[in-house]
Design a protein that fits this description.
The complex is a heterotrimer of chains A (288), B (315) and C (68). Helix content of chain A is 78%, strand content 0%. With 288 residues, chain A is mainly alpha-helical. In chain A, helix 5 (91-114) runs antiparallel to helix 8 (137-170) and helix 9 packs parallel to helix 13. Chain B has 315 residues and is an alpha/beta fold. Chain B folds into two domains: 4-220, Rossmann fold (3-Layer(aba) Sandwich); 226-314, Alpha-Beta Plaits (2-Layer Sandwich), CATH 3.30.70. In chain B, the strands form three sheets. In chain B, strands 5-6-7-3-8-9 form a six-stranded mixed β-sheet, sandwiched between helices. Chain B has a four-stranded antiparallel β-sheet with strand order 11-12-10-13. Chain B has a three-stranded antiparallel β-sheet with strand order 2-1-4, with helices on one face. With 68 residues, chain C is an all-alpha fold. Chain C has one domain (15-64). In chain C, helix 1 (7-34) runs antiparallel to helix 2 (42-51) and helix 1 packs parallel to helix 3. Classes of the chains: A mainly alpha (288), B alpha/beta (315), C mainly alpha (68). Chain A binds chain B through residues 1, 5, 8-9, 12-13, 16, 19, 22-24, 28-29, 32-33, 36, 40, 43-44, 121, 124-126, 128-135, 283-286, 288, and chain B through 45, 49, 52-56, 65-66, 68-70, 72, 74-75, 77, 79, 81, 83-87, 89, 98-99, 101-106, 109, 143, 146, 150-151. Chain B: Residues 6-232 form the ABC transporter domain. Chain B: InterPro entries: AAA+_ATPase, ABC_transporter-like_ATP-bd, ABC_transporter-like_CS, DrrA1/2-like_C, P-loop_NTPase.
Chain lengths: 288, 315, 68
């Protein structure tokens, strides 16, 4: 700001000058919003139960894989002497299976847990009270987005980490590189889908609508990437397949250029979805 | 001397083809208490939401004199909606601190302010309780506390007492009376009585347009008209027949009385708006005597604000 | 693969899983009892939480409580 502005302020708000001096920056406002979101996650117990569910899912997969031959043998009612040949599962395959489990149950739970994050406050009118204060629309959306990211990346890490540890205990050690690489790729996929949820939570009145639209989009993208890999390799939908490959290939996955594009388009799409959410919110900060 | 705080120019809002607000102009002087008065559906809430920035106007602008270029006008406004909604998992104290932090106050400053305000609105004892358990009146008072947390230049309220029970209503009105001496206040209401009790200026709106505006005192004196109310004996058909004929004669222009400007029959009461009080009294008494009209009461007085309000918004 | 299961190893592996599920169930039960209003009868939710395996508590967390 320039000097003229200061003078202008000085003449009209002279009495309040000390107060405006103590005003903190937009960064503090953003942190306040983020703090509120995290406190809400904690008080609604989401920050506790979602990670636990992921941990349970993550442990179950290697345990099931390990006991599967025995379970089949016991339950199979096979005639005496039948030799069941079930190849011992590869550790990396178990990790990939865990990811695909997260891809169904995990994303469903996260999308349902986050579906009302904007629409709930907008429908009740709670957002109106926040947005009449000098708060930027972008920081409102970003604080919500960041809290979703915290919850989803944290839960995924906990669940996938548990799966990795149990795989090591029960089956075999899987190298850290494929584990981390597949984790990051899958986390990016989660981020993309949940940012779609956030957008529709801003766009739609109904929270369920937001969850199912974003899950529908996720299914569509993965199916398309599976059906016509040649043409959809650049789309975020290819990320899940990429993550499975990363988990099962030893060492660093050799990523093709098209695969890199999947990562880049996902990042761009997330940024664009966030920008669209801000625009939508700005257009109608509250409903009656 | 009062300085202008806010000016509204040509403010309009259309929802599809429906014009909710049609080019409203008014201004608010610093330190005044202004009521936005009008019947339900007149466009009060829409106007208020545009003032607070919650709704983008179709046309027109809202400007604050004390606002530096580039500064957010929301920093100057404290807003209390008709039925404020909070995060039910927060406590009263937490919410006001949160509101203060959002307005840019530091941590300790926000805490001090919150404590002070909760005390002031009578929620000190409930400060630690979760908002989900607050009653309507408590929520309204908390809404007031959170709206005042950054010492706004203008306190904007949408129907602040309409949704409350009589007790909560009296409580909030008492607070508002105190507050209006400290800051500029704008509130909407459909109840004339509330406006009369609290405010200095009124802006009466009707179907999205300003019907009348000015200070309460000047409106009262400018629009004061002598009125005569004649209460007739309902069972007496002669009296009622005369009244009906009288009204009909006046309104059809068959007979024009120079002393009379309007006549209306409501039930068994004949309302006459007089042009000249003395003449009117004289002439009416003669008329009544001539037809030997049996009446039970004759009252002479001046039109109230209520009459004016009804007339302005009633059409 | 090892055909003969060591019982202690099996228990050691499954205990964390059971504990986690129990924690979920207990949190859900406490919330269910404490909350003023559930969507649908409270008793139904209690039964769902107890007998619904992993899905029961999840369903309660997601849909059982009236949105604040």
């Amino acid at each position: 700001m320039n000097g003229a502005n200061e003078v202008y302020r000085g003449t009209h708000r002279g009495a309040e000058a000390p107060r405006s001096a103590t005003r903190s920056s937009g960064g503090a406002v953003f942190l306040t919003l983020l703090g509120k979101e995290c406190l809400e996650l904690l008080r609604s117990f989401k920050l506790i139960w979602v990670p636990i569910v992921f941990a349970v899912l993550g442990i179950m997969q290697p345990v099931l894989s390990y006991y599967m031959p025995i379970i089949i043998e016991k339950a199979g009612n096979m005639p005496e002497g039948t030799v069941i040949e079930i190849p011992a599962p590869m550790g990396s395959q178990v990790l990939a299976d865990t990811l695909s489990q997260f891809g169904v149950m995990g994303i469903l739970i996260l999308a349902l847990a986050c579906m009302g994050i904007v629409s709930g406050e907008r429908n009740s009118g709670a957002s109106a009270l926040v947005l009449v204060k000098p708060v930027s629309y972008a920081s409102y959306i970003l604080s919500k987005w960041l809290s979703i990211m915290l919850l989803s990346w944290g839960s995924l890490l906990l669940g996938y980490g548990a799966a990795w540890y149990y795989t090591w205990l029960l089956i075999e050690y899987v190298d850290v590189v494929p584990f981390l690489l597949s984790f990051v790729l899958y986390g990016l996929w989660f981020s993309f889908v949940l940012t779609v949820t956030l957008l529709f939570s801003t766009a739609l009145r109904s929270a369920a609508g937001a969850a199912f639209t974003s899950l529908g989009a996720a299914i569509l993208l993965t199916v398309l990437a599976g059906l016509i890999p040649k043409y959809m390799a650049w789309s975020p939908g290819a990320l899940t397949g990429l993550a499975y490959q990363a988990a099962t290939s030893p060492g660093w996955l050799q990523m093709e250029p098209a695969s890199w594009w999947a990562v880049i388009t996902a990042l761009i799409a997330i940024a664009a979805l966030l920008a669209a959410s801000v625009v939508l919110l700005k257009r109608a900060p509250a409903r009656d | 001397m009062t300085a202008q705080l806010m000016e509204v120019k040509g403010l309009s809002k259309s929802f599809g083809t429906m014009k909710a607000v049609k080019s409203i102009d008014f201004s608010i002087q610093e330190g005044r208490c202004v009521a936005l008065l009008g019947p339900n559906g007149a466009g009060k809430t829409t106007t208020i939401r545009m003032l607070t920035g919650l709704l983008a106007p179709t046309a027109g602008e809202v400007s604050f004199r004390s606002l530096a270029p580039g500064e957010d006008r929301r920093a100057l406004i404290g807003y209390l909606p008709q039925t404020p909604a909070f995060h039910n998992w927060m406590s009263g104290m937490e919410y006001v601190v949160y509101a203060g932090r959002l307005c840019g106050l530091g941590v300790s400053e926000a805490k001090n302010r919150a404590k002070e305000l909760l005390e002031r609105v009578g929620l000190a004892d409930a400060a630690k309780r979760k908002l989900g358990g607050y009653s309507g009146g408590m929520k309204q008072r908390l809404g007031l506390a959170q709206a005042l947390v950054h010492q706004p230049k203008l306190l904007v309220m949408d129907e602040p007492v309409s949704a409350l029970d009589p007790l909560g209503r009296r409580e909030v009105l008492r607070l508002l009376k105190e507050l209006k001496s400290e800051t500029t206040v704008l509130f909407s209401t459909h109840v004339l009585h509330d406006a009369e009790e609290l405010c200095d200026d009124v802006v009466i709106i009707r179907s999205g347009e300003v019907a009348l505006q000015g200070s309460l005192a000047s409106i009262r004196s400018q629009h004061r008209q002598p009125v005569i109310e004649l209460k007739l004996d309902e069972d007496n058909t002669r009296g009622m027949d005369w009244a009906r004929a009288f009204v009909q004669r006046t309104n059809s222009g068959e007979a024009s009385y120079s002393w009379l400007s309007e006549a209306e029959l409501r039930g068994n009461r004949l309302h006459l708006t007089a042009a000249h009080m003395d003449q009117a009294r004289q002439a009416l008494l003669e008329e009544l005597a001539r037809h030997s009209v049996p009446f039970s009461r004759l009252e002479v007085g001046y039109s109230s604000l209520e009459d004016l309000f009804m007339k302005v918004v009633g059409e | 693969m090892n055909e003969t299961l060591e019982l202690s190893k099996m228990v050691g592996l499954l205990v964390p899983l059971i504990i986690l599920q129990l924690i979920l169930m207990i949190i859900a039960l406490v919330l269910c009892v404490k909350t003023e209003e559930t969507r649908g009868p409270k008793l139904m939710w209690v039964l769902i939480i107890i007998f619904g395996q992993l899905i029961g508590p999840i369903a309660f967390f997601l849909f059982g409580r009236r949105q604040a």
